[in-house]
Each structure stands twice: as C-alpha cells, then as structure tokens.
C-alpha cells in the first residue's frame, strides 16, 4: 500500500507539473427512479418507473438533493430517465406532455438547489432492443428527441445534456459517432449553445476502454455546428469492483493505472475533457480507501477531468449494494459510509464548491 501511494503521488505530480492545484469543477450523485424498469437491451417497462419525488410516489429526491448540496457541498445531479417514459412507449422523438412534465418536476427540483442537473436518457443506445442508427430508431428520431428536450431547457445554463447512458456492443462505432453528432447538432440548433453535452462511447462508456475501443477517436470528430468543440465533454463510467460492473460491494482498485492515467493523457494530448458520471462502491472500508485515491487522482488532473457523480441515491433502497441514499431519521439526513468518508466534497475538500 505505501508503494502504491507513492506511485499515485508520482503520477499526480507528473500530471500537475509546476501548475497550481485547481479543484474539480463538479461532484454529485445520481438520482435514479424515472429509469427503473429499463434494461441494458433498451427496453423499459415504464410501469416500474419510481419517480424520486414524494408527490409522484417514490423517494424524496428534492430532500436528498437539498441535503447533498447543503451538508456535503455537492453541485451536480444526474437524473436518469427512460426514453419510453418520456414518449409514453412510442418510438419517436415527440415527447408526451404529461410524462415530460413529470420528469421536468425532478429537473426543476434539482435546479432549485442551485446545482447543475444532467438529463440522462438511460437507454444503452437502444430502443426496445434495437440500436440507434444501426437498425433501431434512425438518427432523425434521436435528434428530434434531443431537439425537443433542448428546446424546453435552452435558456437554462445549468442543465447538462447526457445524450445516452452506456452504449454497448455497438456494431460500428463510426456510425454511432454520427448518431451522437446528429443529437449535438439538433441541441445546438435550438439555441442551447452554452450547456455541456456529454458524448458517450462504447463498452458501457468504460473509462478503461475509451481509447482501445475506438470510441475516443470517433467521438473526437464530433463538433458543434460552428466547428468548435466547446462544452462537448466525454462521458465515462468506472466502478471499483473486480469486473468494473458495480455489482459487488468490495473495491479492489483505484483505477488509476488502468483508466485514469491513460485517459487523462489522451484527453490532454487531444485538448479534450471528460466527466465521470458513474462511479462508486459498497459501504466497506476497501471502497472508502480506493474511492479516495481515485478522486484524489481525478482532482490532480482537474484540467481534463471535470469531476465525478456517484451511483446512486434517488429511489434506490438504502440497502442496495451501491446505495448512496441518505437515511432521513426524522430530524436530519444520515449519509452512507462511502459518501461521508470519501465522496462528499466536504470530506475530501477537492471540489470547487467547497474550496
Ligand atoms: C411490467 O411490469 C409490471 C409491474 O412489475 C408487470 O406486472 C408487467 O408484467 C410488466 N410488463 C412486461 C411486458 O414485462
Ligand atoms: C401521454 O401520457 C399519458 C400518461 O401520462 C397518457 O394518458 C396519454 O394518453 C399520453 N398521450 C398521448 C398523446 O399519447
Ligand atoms: C428563451 O429566451 C428567449 C430570449 O430571452 C425567449 O425569447 C424565449 O421565449 C425563451 N424560451 C424559453 C423556452 O424559455
Ligand atoms: C468493447 O466492446 C466490444 C463489443 O462492442 C468488444 O469487442 C471489445 O473487446 C470491448 N473492448 C474493451 C477494451 O473492452
Ligand atoms: C439524525 O441525523 C442527524 C444528521 O445526521 C444527526 O445529527 C442526529 O443525531 C440524528 N438523530 C437521531 C435521533 O439519530
Ligand atoms: C444518524 O447518524 C448519527 C450520527 O452519526 C447516529 O448517531 C445515528 O444513529 C444515525 N441514525 C440513523 C437512523 O442512522
């Protein structure tokens, strides 16, 4: 362990060089529930959606987010939703008014806390088993979906557009980049020019596979309509369990050598940035230690890594294996072990909201 710490510090020092330390810009928590019932094949049984809003029947997402901002210093929340939820089970880009209004209650709740709020379409690059632009909904449909969402939120600078959660097993990654480009163009053409758009690669947006899978090269060609790459940020996930699945309580790695070092190097060489929109571990000491190391390294590379968003709170039960759902005891909110000991900006003091 002491040896590992030394190499961590050496890598961090090499990355930072003589520059002044800058904290991470963003840190937050996923607030799922509108995505419940969605599978990795892009099907969503929307009767299983469990909106994390007390007025819609599930968790007190507003209370959670207020607590996370006030007591922990978080400044971003990711708000997953199924495509089918928003269109009421139609394979279209046209939003169902009632359904979109329900989801927007969560976006608005998030915005009232003062945080950034990521709209995350949680469909694995698919609709009902079929891949966008490669047998499933065509790029025009995907672009229309995002155009409609962005048209509603175009004046809100604190909304982040997360184009798609965890694409995987994409037959042609170049064609996928074309689908991503179609959505980016559609968003910008609404006038939503100032917001961050997150670009997702293959392999469940694995930070480790980002370059080797070819995702980096093709996503690097996606541009705003004016030819710039301003606020086009790479979307990456990484868990700390042995198979990077986020389904085991124990953590076995800080991911620095396998993922964050090579990713940071690529980002810097290519003038790009990334946001780690899913990470986390069980409420065990191994995760507290490794998460702290991972966040420390991300902060040492804050010129290219914007921050991290833990998975997850919202409507997930407090005994879910990777739960970051705080417990309301009647007078206050108690955080889970990984949040209170590693992820909370108030604890690690590595995020701009608290330093
Ligand atoms: C959708 O979920 C509901 C509630 O769990 C279940 O009763 C129903 O059978 C499911 N529908 C399909 C098509 O799986
Ligand atoms: C929109 O969704 C609601 C359920 O929230 C449903 O009752 C209504 O029929 C849908 N409207 C259309 C036009 O599909
Ligand atoms: C956005 O702002 C523009 C200019 O202030 C205004 O004309 C438009 O109505 C606004 N749109 C929305 C959806 O709020
Ligand atoms: C990425 O996923 C593809 C399947 O789409 C697979 O063939 C490839 O081995 C994966 N790459 C890595 C580095 O995991
Ligand atoms: C409830 O939670 C708050 C915040 O963590 C804590 O200060 C307080 O002691 C707890 N009260 C009880 C009765 O557990
Ligand atoms: C809340 O946290 C406080 C302080 O750590 C602890 O004393 C209390 O038992 C916790 N309550 C619950 C219900 O988790």
Automatic annotation (TrEMBL):
Q: Which InterPro entries match?
A: GH, Glyco_hydro_5, Glyco_hydro_5_CS
Q: GO biological process annotations for this chain's record?
A: cellulose catabolic process
Enzyme class name = hydrolase
The protein's UniProt keywords, in alphabetical order, are: Carbohydrate metabolism, Cellulose degradation, Glycosidase, Hydrolase, Polysaccharide degradation, Signal
Q: Does the keyword Hydrolase apply?
A: yes
State its Enzyme Commission number(s): 3.2.1.4
Query: In the record, which residues are listed under signal peptide?
Result: 1-18
Q: Which GO terms describe its molecular function?
A: cellulase activity
Which reactions is this enzyme annotated as catalysing? Endohydrolysis of (1->4)-beta-D-glucosidic linkages in cellulose, lichenin and cereal beta-D-glucans
> Which residue range or ranges hold the Glycoside hydrolase family domain?
62-311
Query: Which family does the record claim for this protein?
Result: Belongs to the glycosyl hydrolase 5 (cellulase A) family.
Query: Which protein are we looking at?
Result: cellulase
Taxonomic source organism = Paxillus rubicundulus Ve08.2h10
Taxonomic classification:
Eukaryota, Fungi, Dikarya, Basidiomycota, Agaricomycotina
């Amino acid at each position: 362990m002491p040896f590992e710490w030394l190499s961590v510090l050496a890598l961090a020092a090499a990355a930072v060089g003589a520059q002044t330390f800058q904290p991470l810009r963003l840190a937050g928590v996923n607030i799922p529930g509108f995505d419940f019932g969605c599978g990795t094949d892009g099907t969503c049984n929307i009767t299983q959606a469990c909106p994390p809003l007390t007025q819609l029947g599930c968790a007190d997402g507003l209370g959670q987010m207020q607590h996370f901002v006030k007591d922990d210093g978080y400044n971003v929340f990711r708000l997953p939703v199924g495509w089918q939820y928003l269109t009421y089970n139609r394979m279209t880009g046209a939003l169902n008014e009632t359904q979109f209004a329900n989801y927007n209650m969560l976006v608005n709740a998030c915005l009232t806390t003062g945080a950034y709020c990521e709209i995350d379409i949680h469909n694995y690059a698919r609709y009902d088993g079929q891949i966008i632009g490669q047998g499933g909904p065509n790029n025009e449909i995907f672009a229309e979906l995002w155009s409609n969402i962005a048209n509603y939120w175009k004046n809100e600078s604190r909304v982040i557009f997360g184009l798609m959660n965890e694409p995987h097993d994409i037959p042609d990654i170049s064609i996928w980049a074309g689908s991503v480009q179609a959505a980016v163009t559609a968003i910008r053409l609404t006038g939503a020019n100032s917001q961050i758009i997150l670009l997702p690669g293959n392999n469940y947006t694995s930070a480790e596979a980002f370059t080797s899978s070819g995702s980096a090269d093709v996503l690097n060609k996606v541009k705003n309509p004016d030819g710039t790459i301003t606020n086009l940020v790479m979307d990456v996930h990484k868990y700390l369990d042995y198979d990077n699945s986020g389904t085991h309580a124990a953590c076995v790695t800080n991911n620095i050598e396998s993922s964050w070092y090579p990713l940071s190097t690529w980002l810097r060489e290519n003038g790009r940035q990334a946001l780690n929109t899913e990470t986390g571990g069980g409420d065990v000491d191994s995760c507290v230690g490794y998460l702290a190391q991972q966040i420390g390294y991300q902060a040492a590379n804050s010129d290219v890594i914007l921050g991290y968003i833990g998975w997850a709170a919202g409507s997930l039960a407090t005994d879910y294996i990777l739960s970051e759902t705080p417990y309301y005891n009647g007078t206050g909110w108690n955080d889970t072990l990984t949040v209170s000991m590693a992820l909370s900006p108030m604890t690690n003091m590595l995020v701009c909201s608290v330093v």
